[in-house]
């Protein structure tokens, strides 16, 4: 009898404890079918492709006796057909929130990257605005602080512990101001001794999402960004941004040889209009010529992007997108080290690359 009572008490405790904390599941599912011209994988000819991306976020929080809140997130993106990552490589952190702000510890996205990707890189503009550059996507060993809002203003600060010593570190400071339809953003990022420093936005210190363990090079990378968005009452919205990328020291050879300094400036403008279930967007980006130790290369490019979205429900939309890259030099695309960074473009004598995409997105 005692064993049955004890086992019953343990089971009751085990199953009662989770009910005291809030746990929720959210995410999205996206289907993209596209045609791309000038493909490196197809000898410069066009090719069809598709991608299915499913994101699952598991969030939890518990109200502490002090009045503060303990929070946590476990998240993963499964992108077919080339990657099936282990759960938690996307995000895995624990945080503490109160009237003083919020502290998070663990594997987290860069707040600078999140702002560059959305809302500024929205509607198909993120491939050059967020995924290309000196900024990082993620810090695997981050300590992050999120301030309370002060009359529409708030800021964030992140620091990656790296190897736990003073010879490798990454940090960033970001801020935004929101008042009515106006939003202003600014950010600064610096990482040192990154063994994987390149023009691809990666996890600081490592080549695998969710981990960072290579601080073998002597280098410094920096990214600066400012931006503004205004949403009008009549359905129109406009956005503009500037970003500077800097690489110094021992970095990927596609950026520069030796130990010099390379800079690349980027500019973005975008306009949108929403009426009923319809949303129209048109954007333009300029990637300026790179400069290495003051010497300018003829490797800039212009990008025009258009996207139409139609709401199928409150949670699901269908969209059509066209993205067209125009290179100043048919054989150069800034300091990119891989064709995938420019929609698979071959850079083999053709001075443009186009992607036309149709897809659906649903949130849950």
From TrEMBL:
Domain Porin: from-to ranges: 11-325
Organism: Deefgea chitinilytica
Pfam families: Porin_4 (PF13609)
Keywords in alphabetical order: Cell outer membrane, Ion transport, Membrane, Signal, Transmembrane, Transport
Regions annotated as coiled coil: none
Domain of life: Bacteria
Descriptive protein name: Porin
InterPro entries in the record: Gram_neg_porin_domain (IPR033900), Porin_dom_sf (IPR023614), Porin_Gram-ve (IPR001702), Porin_Neis (IPR002299)
Signal peptide residues on this chain, from the entry's feature table: 1-21
CDD domains: gram_neg_porins
């Amino acid at each position: 009898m005692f064993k049955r009572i004890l086992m019953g008490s343990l089971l009751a405790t085990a199953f009662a404890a989770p009910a005291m904390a809030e746990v929720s599941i959210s995410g999205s599912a996206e289907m993209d079918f596209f045609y791309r011209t000038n493909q490196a994988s197809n000898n410069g000819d066009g090719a069809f492709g598709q991608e299915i991306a499913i994101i699952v976020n598991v969030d939890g929080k518990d109200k502490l006796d002090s009045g503060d809140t303990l929070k946590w997130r476990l998240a993963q993106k499964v992108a077919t057909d080339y990657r099936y990552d282990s759960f938690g490589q996307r995000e895995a952190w624990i945080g503490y929130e109160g009237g003083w702000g919020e502290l998070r510890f663990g594997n987290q996205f860069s707040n600078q990257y999140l702002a560059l990707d959305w809302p500024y890189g929205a509607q198909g503009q993120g491939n050059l605005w967020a995924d290309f550059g000196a900024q990082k996507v993620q810090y695997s060993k981050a300590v992050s602080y999120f301030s309370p809002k002060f009359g529409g203003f708030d800021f964030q600060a992140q620091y990656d512990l790296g190897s736990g010593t003073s010879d490798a570190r990454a940090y960033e400071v970001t801020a935004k101001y929101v008042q009515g339809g106006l939003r202003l953003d600014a950010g600064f990022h610096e990482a040192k001794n990154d063994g994987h420093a390149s023009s691809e936005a990666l996890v600081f210190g490592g080549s695998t999402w969710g981990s960072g363990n290579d601080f073998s090079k002597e280098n410094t990378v920096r990214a600066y960004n400012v931006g503004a968005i205004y949403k009008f009452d009549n359905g129109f919205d406009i956005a503009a941004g500037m970003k500077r990328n800097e690489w110094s020291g021992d970095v990927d050879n596609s950026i520069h040889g030796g130990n010099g300094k390379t800079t690349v400036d980027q500019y973005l403008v975008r306009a949108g209009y929403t009426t009923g279930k319809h949303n129209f967007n048109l954007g333009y980006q300029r990637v300026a010529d790179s400069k290495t130790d003051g010497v300018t290369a003829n490797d800039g490019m212009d990008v025009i992007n258009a996207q139409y979205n139609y709401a199928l429900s409150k949670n699901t939309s269908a969209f059509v997108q066209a993205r067209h890259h125009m290179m100043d030099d048919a054989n150069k695309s800034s300091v990119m080290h891989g064709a995938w960074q420019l929609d698979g473009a071959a850079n083999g004598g053709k001075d443009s690359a186009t992607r036309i995409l149709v897809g659906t997105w649903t949130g849950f």
